## 1
Amino acid sequence: MSEEFKVEIVNPEKSFLSKENVTEVVVPAFEGEMGILKDHISIISFLKPGIIKVCSKSDETKYFVEDGIVEFKDNNLSILTSSIYNISDLDSNKVDQILNEAKEESKQANIDDQKKYLIDQKIEVLKNLSVN
Amino acid sequence: MASLDDLKKRISSVKSTQKITKAMKMVAAAKLRRAQENAEKGRPYSEKMNNIILNLSSGISDKENAPKLLAGTGEKKTHLCVVMTSDRGLCGGFNTNIIKKAKQYFQKILKENKILKIITVGSKGYDQLKRQYKENIIERISFKDSKNINYFDADKVGKIIIEKFEKGEFDVCAIFYNQFKNVITQIPQEQQIIPLKSNEEEEKETSSNNSYEFEPEEDEILSNLLPKNISTQIFKAMLENSASEQGSRMSAMDNATRNAGEMVDKLTIQYNRSRQAAITKELIEIISGAESL
């Protein structure tokens, strides 16, 4: 039996990615990274800013997301997100730009803890990206 | 009867109008293709979102404590209607159809002695509603400046709605927009977004076997997801609306071009006839003048 399942990433504007032959997807779920393999239990979870890793037998692609929802059901993984970037498309300028925006946001006085946590996460991830 | 000169002027004026409507039709056709593409691309997101919420809400354990955005405030006193129209005119019955649909709903509400509040999105809707419902309009939003429809605009509208809901300014919220079916048919839609109306048939289907694992907790997911869903639904409505607007404009302009063509033909015949009549008259005058000599 094959170990592959289907993944679909959509953002409000379009269907971002649709792939049939995925073996593993790692998503930055709210309470920690989560690897999803075939026949995972049905799950709904939130994403925090981080890296989505989509692995198939032949290759592996990484995406940077800022937020989103994942739903896994009957070997269909749907990821809904409002902002997603393919990491190979991101150059250092773009990363810096998002990073600066995030830094600006974290300086605002009236943000609650949860938001602060998310932004810190985002900055962390972006910093790691710009190093590579 | 109009003189030859007058006819000539009219013909040329109709012709130039025809040129304008033709150009507008072509512009609308080009824009329509893009808008249609966007609307179709945007559908999976809102459908998925809706599905997830349906799955979630059917699986929710105690309905009593469900978030208010889902279950409603328990009352149905104040209705908020978000009427979404275009910013530009000359698009046939597009705006009128939405307004008509909305007005029916308004009247129903007012008859039941409920309070009506209106938010208009797009300036044409405001123009048409302000005469009759001026006191009811609490906000008007227009995105004249943004060329393309983007999610941020929809999010803005969504946030306004949620803010008002949290302040307890209304109990039920419905949006009005045109659903794009094809170029000549657009269906005015009324969609209730607060409290969320779940499709009962679908619910039966899904509730049979769903055992989701949630992370974080169910209600936390819901309270996060529901506001997002409202923005998504509005975004969907905006996309559908823009495709419908272009489609409607295209067919309206097509009709106008054809009508202008018919008119030119008719006027040209009339022009030729009266010219011929004038020539014949002159000839008769000359001949009878010659005969009398």
Note: Chain A touches chain B through 23 residues (CB under 8 Å).
## 2
Amino acid sequence: MIDWQSFTPVSAFTGGMIIGLATALLLLVTGRIAGISGIVGGLIELRKGDLAWRAAFVIGLLFAPWLWRWLGELPPVHVESSHVMLVLAGLAVGIGTRYGSGCTSGHGVCGLSRLSPRSIVATISFMVTGMGVVYIIRYSLSSS
Amino acid sequence: MFILIVALLSGLIFGLGLILSGMTDPAKVLAFLDVAGSWDPSLALVMLGAISIGFLAFRAAKRRGQTLLSAPLHLPISRTIDRHLILGSLLFGAGWGLAGLCPGPSLVLAASGHSGGIIFVVAMLLGMVIFDRLEKCRQVDSKLNDRQQKNIGRE
């Protein structure tokens, strides 16, 4: 059942287009893919001659909530997970995105925009697992 | 220098888009992944909005064959769908479903000072460092194996 009360089509689509614009800007001017896990992973690898633009992009990203807060109020967020859950999830996301060469931005946005078969497979894989894990946590574990 | 300013701007715009879209709220992401419950399809529209612009940008970039500054494009070259791609994506999806956070939104959430976001990001960076170390060990191993095999071949 669709939850029409929580559905925010306008901000979601507009926000998506802004993400697309950022991707287009990075691609057309620097020739790089705006995949966050890849950009951060390259910083961790300390790949020589390749660090400056990655650091600049991440600094811009980290500055976003500050600029937003300067202009108004950040939208409310709700973190339901326990600290242990957040650590496990973070480790899985860190290792998984590097092992699978991409995340929601690299495969989900850039890869699908390029119609890359690898990214289509990756996106289906993480979408289905994400949905499966939420199903297990919310319905299988709580009912038993 | 110009490239660095553009990268900074791109990161900033990307982050603002994430905040507006609702991706930085884990509860909203989990409501999208919860297809069996009261489903919030908003994030499908985030993807659609981003891809609609991204598709045009990648088509333009491929047609030009280079950047607007006439520098080479750095597009992924791998075309093989292998174990790494699928297992990695499955593991990522599991983590995404556990907390409702993926790399971009988690960095924005952490930067806004949210303790949950900071805990997630520290663990995620640790995960990336673990991957990096394992990968470097594997490369050293495979080089050693190559060398041993060459030696065997010589004998």
Note: Chain B touches chain A through 115 residues (CB under 8 Å).
## 3
Amino acid sequence: MMKLLITTVSAALLLASQPAAALKVFACEPEWAALVAELAPDANTFTATTVYQDPHHIEARPSLIAKLRKADLLICSGASLEAGWLPVLLRQAANPGVQPGQPGNLMAAMQVSRLGIPESLDRSMGDVHAEGNPHVHLDPERLSQIASVTTQRLQIIDPDNSSQYVAAYDRFTERWQQALQRWRRQAQPLQGKNLVIHHNEWAYLNEFLGTNSVGTLEPQPGIPPSLGYLAELNSSMKNTDVLAIVRKPSDPEKASQWLAQRLNRPAIELPYSVDSHGAADLFELFDKTIALLIAAQAKTQ
Amino acid sequence: MFSSKAAYAVIGAALCTCLTPAFAQAPAGSQQLNPAVSLIISGGVNEYSNDPDNYEIGGLPLLGEAGLNEEGFALGEAELVLDSNIDDRFYGKATIAMHQEGDELEVELEEAFFRTLTLPHGLTLQGGKFFSEIGYLNNIHGHAWDFVDAPLLYRGLFGRQIIDTGLQLTWLAPTDQYLQFGAEWLRGNERSDNSDFAGKNAVTTFITTGGDINRSSSWQLGLSGLFSDNGVVELGGHGHGGEEEEEGGDAELSGDTRLYGLDFVYKWALNGNPRTRNFKLQAELFRLERDGDISIAEPDGIEASTLASDATGFYVQGIYQFMPKWRVGLRYDRLNIDNSGSDEEVLAEAGYENIGHNPSRVSAMLDYSNSEFSRLRLQVNSDRSGESGSDTQVFVQYIMSLGSHGAHRY
């Protein structure tokens, strides 16, 4: 009888301790879910936010806690982008494997060099992040560095499938390098062009494309545009050759339309991430983004 | 940029370093300051058509901080909040509340607890002094509430909020549906002017579930209970700025406390993007049963009575953000109180008169938040807590947060 009990208990423990068949991934933003789809195609990935949401303003909903409880890998932008909700999820989810410092906790922006690290912190400058600008996924070169780190983490978390992850990484990197060359070629006409942006999440794209941001619709990061400020921005742009006013899908379009009419320049909504404007994966994200900017540039000529 | 060979080398090199336990990676969110520190200051102007010193909830003694805020210009509590992951296994948080009481500065350790992060099987243990998980609003700091004041049921049944010293254990079920079970073992007699709720060793239990209806809507439902036997509760309390309540000042209740509650929250924001417009519906229903004996120390001896008190209270509130920065809210409160005992005069003296009055209140508020760190609020109440007719209450409030970015629970 005792022996039977021990056998049953140890069998139950063995079952409980074995990792589930598919790796469970909790991605804070769709771009990281898309990256995991390239590097771990068999993973069961849950995406916490959509491109129509502002990842800085998300409710720490019960459904998110339940998902994080079971995740093997947490992949997010980090650099305080999710500071309003992710710490709550981490404290409530009772999941040791995804806590900070564990291999299952991957903050993408913290793996690469970041732009816009403030020299001093003062809230009168708006909601600035001490770690710098967190929107790193819009630079395809930084993305390839993050892909490498993600692959390392996948190998540690799920060593049994290590070789598969390396193979997927190789396939991805080869295609990505080809795409990089194509994008650099396509973006040639955009070099030195000026953009007015809604919020400063385009810094990394600007760096890659060689475009400049000459103004933001938000007076300070995180502070919604006011009419007075927009009028000021309008007059300060009178002598600047602006290519377009750029926003992401979750930004309200009113402010950019208002300025577009006055400057007589197009207001364009860029995909910003996957699952928007028909961009199904990271490759299409940059294809569509560059195509939209090129189209705007062709119109203004 | 990366050739395949280089990638292998990078992975290999990284693997070597990764085998050492700690990662050279800063945690999400809060690495600029360790611990995250914020100071929340609040205050405003409070006006009442009735004398706030005569405030009462008909049929219940005012426990803890159930009284009204002082009239006129008022400085609220300043709360210093420190929180941090302590190490790889523990999280800790402390809130120190400072309040000017006449010439004196009152300092109070409102909460100070640790919480495990890495227990297996979905378990979390929390110990120290903390807000009980009872109900929805109970574990939310007053500065994060949607109205200036507590719901009547919190005021009348809880003495504002139940904060106590003890241990909490929760288990999060490994289901797609959020499902959490928990229990707390509390001293039950924390004397902090915040609560003297059950008097002795209280045990609470709670179940919380919730989920998403679609991209735009989500909900949470909670069931909770608090149980304590043979506790001694000192009746009589005071407001944030008021005098010691005379009614029932020396009265004691010894007996059993039973508290049962149901809480529900529904949140809506188009595409789950609450910045422009969002809506929150929140309701709680609680029943407090007290069974025991009342004794009042008088110069010429002790007066006593038995007590059987059943108090049921609920509130429903809706908050709508109709444009960025601006929100409006409406709240309705009601209590039903049924008291009986061997000596009605003693009960009345202790605050447990049986008057057949059902305290109720309607509140409307408008608030403006320039950023996540600042909020200005106007609120008007029509308060029928007492028997002396309706009290019109007007509040102007500011809540300012200096320092780190707070992460808020659902």
Note: Chain B has one domain: 29-403.
## 4
Amino acid sequence: MTQLILEQALNGLQFGLMLFLLAAGLTLVFGIMDMINLAHGSLYMVGAYLAAEVTQASGSFITGVGVAMLGTGVLAVVLEVVLLRRLYARNHLAQVLATFALILIANECVRIVWGAQTLMLNAPDALSGPVRIGGFLYPSYRLLIIGVGALIAGLLYVLVARTRIGMWVRAGASNREMTEALGINVRLLFTAVFAFGAALCALAGAMLGPLLAVQVGMGESILILAFVVIVIGGIGSIRGALVGSLLVGLVDTLGRAMLPAMLRALFSPEVASSLGPALASVLIYVLMAAILFWRPEGLFPARA
Amino acid sequence: MSEHLLEIEGLETSYGSSQVLFGVSLTVAEGEVATLLGRNGMGKTTTVRSICGLEKAGGGSIRFAGQRIEGWTPDRIGRAGIALVPEGRQIFPNLTVRENLVAFAANRHAAREPWSLDRIYAFFPSLEKRSGNLGGRLSGGEQQMLAIGRALMTNPRLLILDEATEGLAPLVREEIWRCLDALRGSGQTILVIDKYVERLIALANRHTILERGQVAWRGNSAELDADHGIWHRLLGV
């Protein structure tokens, strides 16, 4: 039992850290520019496809991940300059409509280029086996994801909390107008933040590619989770995104694994087996509702 | 007095379809302290927001250091050397006191004695004790000092203060006035909006009073001091 919990906790940590890579960019975009970007998940999808394509062509997973991050970052700059900039001053409905259209366009483009079937993205051979942790075996590739996720989270923390650019980003998220009046070109800063967030999306897509299917529409399901994360964490807050991601990753993963067993202790096996999965899938929304009840601004609100 | 650092002529600004400023003209010379007065809702804040590029000027011209700046983005105007201490302070609550100060530090116009963190802390000793606290945790007076310090750290050629003493306890207010006196002594060019006419007469040389988005009166301290009818009629004092 303890072993199962430990293993599922590691899975939750791994999923949470990848979720953080998406949520970090999303929360800054929403926080600084007050812009709802539904197409954030599409960048994750494009990253996964680019990684799969380049890994296959070059035979190197690292090259695939690198090209995916760079390519998606460049795509994001083009997208921001050509389209998204025009939407900042518009209301949320216009933003939702336009970026929802982007999702459809991105999905269709991916289908045209790569076809409708699921793409294979294999983890490097060296990491295909398990490693022994304490008393049990755990896939080494999943450990790598945890390592990379933790490393990026650490780097992001230093960037946001310790550098001047990080101060501008936080200032911009709390009061854009004042940040501009003090001489900072928030527009340029934002293009950079957006491209950086897109590269992190691509990293998440590439890293999760070998575990999940690389397929059209993969961005939408994770986008919803990323929105739950930033609402829990507080919009515009990187620290909130990290805490929210880990919470959602752990609650979702552990809930799915443990809830059916826990319910069996209370209900008959038939009831428990039908109730368990249903309850587990709404657990993160219950979590979000509970946090919003006590902290309507989220756990770490960026605004006053 | 040298040529005018700031020169506004015929400024018109609207919010949507309702016009707020109807041809405001105003000058501030290098090294002087000038004031902008008037009752609430007469267009003082709109005027300074227009200077800073935060509101779009619909007509007229704004010259700063010889350049036409109306239509510039706020960040460009900020880098050109105008720093605003806005109404309501608007410090960054999620940044520490130190971060609020160092994040925007610059010396773009080669000030001879540029402001530094140490100088700001010497100027506002109570901020030094709060260095690591989040801006949102400060008292109103400390927030006001922080807002002034933050603006000074950009080493501005023109410092604009919008209601810097509003809502402060009398003792704290006095400290702000003392700071402004010291800044004037150091040759800092300042445009100040405030309600305390007596203090402004002592601090500044030239005064402009707005009434319904237009300049209703302008003159020097002696003239303003002598005519209490103006106080009553245009300032509601």
Note: The longest helix of chain B spans residues 170-185.
